[in-house]
C-alpha cells in the first residue's frame, strides 16, 4: 500500500487520520472465516514465485496478522503513524463509521473500501510466457475483474463448496479470488493466471479442454468458468445441473431467461421453448445480412447502417420460422426475455472463419452500438432496460485482446496479456480493431447506473 492509497483511505473517514486502523480493528474483531481469508492471502507469497518477500510493515498487504493483537470487540481501533521504516500503532476512539459485522469477509470489506464504486480500470497485465498460451484465459479474467456488477458481488462472497473437496487445489472460485486479490493489492504490474489455469485444466482433463500449454476458445472459457463458479456457490458437483434459489451472483450478473414461442391463426396451442444462457449468440454473417436492409448514404457518399445492434437482434429473431403443429404452415418465431434481467447483457458473435475478410470485420465493428435496449432486442419485454457498452473480447488468428472502458474517465484501454495501453474514445477503439483486423467475439453491456 503506497502513501497515496493511505491518504485516500484516511480521507474516507471523519478527521482524515485513521488510515489502516479500521482494517486492524476488523481483523481483531472478526474470527473464524476471516482467518481463512488471511491464511489464503499470506499463502499468495508462496504460490507466486515473482511475489516479493515481505518487506517492513510499511509496504505489506493490509492483511497483517503478526502485529495485530487479539482485542475484544469494543477495544478502540489504532492510529497509524508513518515513520521511515515502520508503522507505529496507537489507540484512538472508534471512528464515527460503523465497523462491519462479524460475518463480513475482511477481503470484501477492504476491497470495497479501497474501490467503493468498483469502476476503476487498473493498468495491470496478466502473464503469458512463451508456450503457456494463456491469452484466451487472460481476457476472461480481465473482463470479469473490470465488470463493476460482477466485481462488487464477487468481492462479497466467501462461502462456497470446492469442486474438488479433497484438497481444494482445483477450485476455480479460490483461484479467481486469489488472482483478483493480487490484481487489486499487489505492487507487481504483471499477475500470473497460473492458479486458475491449473484449476480449469484439472477439472476439464477428461474432456481435453483448457489444458496447460494449449490455446482454447475465450468465449467457451468464459462460459465454463461462470458455470464452475455457479456450481461452487450452489453446492453442486462438477458438471452437475443444479439450480440456485435464490439466484447466485453468477446468475444475477449474467443469466438470461429467454422464451421462444410461436402463435398461429389456426388456433393451435402455442409451442414455447424456454432456455437460459450466459451469452446471447448471433452469427456475424446474419448481422451483416440484416444491416443491408438499413443502408443509407452520408453527405460524403459513404454507406452506413441506420439500425443499431438492438434492432438487428430483434430482426434476426423474427427471421426464424418453425412449422405449426396444427396447420403445418411455417410461422414466425417470437422471443421474450423474462425478468429478472441480468446485470450484464453479453452478446456473442459467431464467426465462420478465424480469418474473416476486412470488409466483414469493418461492417461488424461498426454495428456494435454504445448502448443496447431490451425492448428493441426482443419481441416482448415486460420492463424496459438499457445497457451501456463496457468492454469486449476480440481475437486475431490465435491471439486474444480485451478492450474495456473506465467508467469514471470514459477512457478505453486494451489489455494484451502483460501489455496494457490507453486507447481513448470508442471511435479510437473501432479504428484500432479495424486496423488490427481483430474480430469481436464477446461484447459486454452493463446496466446503466441510475
Structure description:
It is a single chain. The chain is α+β, with helices and mostly antiparallel strands and 450 residues long. The protein has helices spanning 3-11, 21-29, 33-47, 106-114, 135-146, 148-154, 172-185, 194-203, 218-234, 249-254, 284-291, 309-318, 358-367, 374-377, 426-435; strands at residues 78-82, 87-91, 125-126, 190-191, 256-262, 271-277, 280-283, 295-297, 303-305, 321-323, 330-332, 334-338, 344-350, 371-373, 386-396, 399-405, 412-416, 419-424, 439-447. The strands form 6 sheets. Strands 7, 13, 14, 15, 16, 17, 18 and 19 form an 8-stranded mixed β-sheet that branches. It has a 3-stranded antiparallel β-sheet with strand order 6-5-12, with helices on one face. A hairpin with a 4-residue loop joins strand 1 and strand 2. Helix 5 (135-146) crosses helix 9 and helix 11 crosses helix 12 (309-318). The radius of gyration is 25 Å and the shape is globular.
Provide a compact summary of the structure.
By secondary structure, this protein is an alpha+beta fold.
Number of helices: 15
Cα gyration radius (Å): 25 Å
Assign a percent range to the helix content. 25-40%
Q: Shape, please? A: globular
Distance between the termini: 32 Å
Amino acid at each position: 500500500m503506497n502513501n497515496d492509497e493511505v491518504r485516500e483511505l484516511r480521507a474516507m473517514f471523519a478527521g482524515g487520520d485513521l488510515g489502516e486502523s479500521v482494517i486492524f480493528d476488523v481483523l481483531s474483531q472478526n474470527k473464524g472465516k476471516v482467518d481463512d481469508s488471511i491464511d489464503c492471502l499470506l499463502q499468495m507469497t508462496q504460490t507466486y514465485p515473482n511475489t516479493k518477500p515481505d518487506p517492513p510493515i510499511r509496504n505489506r498487504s493490509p492483511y497483517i496478522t503478526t502485529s495485530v493483537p487479539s482485542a475484544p470487540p469494543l477495544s478502540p481501533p489504532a492510529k497509524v503513524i508513518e515513520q521511515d521504516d515502520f508503522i507505529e500503532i496507537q489507540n484512538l476512539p472508534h471512528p464515527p463509521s460503523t465497523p462491519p459485522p462479524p460475518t463480513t469477509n475482511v477481503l470484501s470489506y477492504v476491497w470495497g473500501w479501497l474501490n467503493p464504486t468498483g469502476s476503476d480500470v487498473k493498468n495491470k497485465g496478466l502473464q503469458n510466457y512463451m508456450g503457456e498460451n494463456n491469452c484466451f484465459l487472460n481476457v476472461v479474467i480481465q473482463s470479469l475483474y473490470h465488470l463493476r456488477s460482477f466485481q462488487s458481488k464477487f468481492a462479497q462472497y466467501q462461502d462456497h463448496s470446492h469442486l474438488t473437496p479433497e484438497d481444494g487445489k482445483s477450485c476455480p472460485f479460490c483461484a479467481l479470488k486469489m488472482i483478483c486479490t493480487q490484481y487489486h493489492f499487489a505492487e507487481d504490474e504483471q499477475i500470473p493466471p497460473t492458479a486458475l489455469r491449473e484449476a480449469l485444466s484439472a477439472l476439464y482433463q477428461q474432456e481435453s479442454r483448457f489444458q496447460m500449454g494449449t490455446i482454447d476458445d475465450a468465449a467457451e472459457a468464459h462460459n465454463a468458468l461462470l458455470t464452475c463458479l455457479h456450481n461452487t456457490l450452489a453446492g453442486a458437483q462438477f458438471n452437475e445441473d443444479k439450480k440456485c434459489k435464490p439466484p447466485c451472483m453468477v446468475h444475477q450478473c449474467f443469466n438470461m431467461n429467454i422464451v421462444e414461442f410461436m402463435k398461429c391463426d389456426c388456433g393451435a396451442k402455442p409451442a414455447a421453448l424456454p432456455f437460459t444462457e450466459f451469452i446471447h449468440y448471433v452469427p456475424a454473417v446474419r448481422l451483416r445480412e440484416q444491416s443491408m436492409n438499413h443502408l443509407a448514404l452520408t453527405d460524403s457518399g459513404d454507406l452506413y447502417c441506420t439500425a443499431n445492434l438492438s434492432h438487428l437482434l430483434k430482426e434476426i429473431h423474427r427471421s426464424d420460422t418453425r412449422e405449426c403443429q396444427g396447420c403445418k404452415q411455417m410461422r414466425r418465431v417470437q422471443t421474450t426475455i423474462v425478468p429478472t434481467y441480468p446485470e450484464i447483457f453479453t452478446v456473442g458473435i459467431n464467426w465462420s472463419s478465424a480469418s474473416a475478410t476486412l470488409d466483414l470485420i469493418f461492417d461488424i465493428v461498426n454495428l456494435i452500438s454504445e448502448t443496447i435496449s431490451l425492448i428493441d432486442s426482443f419481441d416482448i419485454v415486460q420492463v424496459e432496460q438499457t445497457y451501456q457498452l463496457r468492454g469486449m473480447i476480440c481475437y486475431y488468428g490465435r491471439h486474444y485482446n480485451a478492450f474495456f472502458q473506465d467508467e469514471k474517465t470514459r477512457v478505453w484501454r486494451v489489455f494484451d496479456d502483460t501489455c496494457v495501453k490507453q486507447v481513448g474514445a470508442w471511435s479510437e477503439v473501432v479504428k484500432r480493431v479495424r486496423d488490427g483486423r481483430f474480430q469481436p467475439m464477446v461484447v459486454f453491456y452493463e446496466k446503466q447506473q441510475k
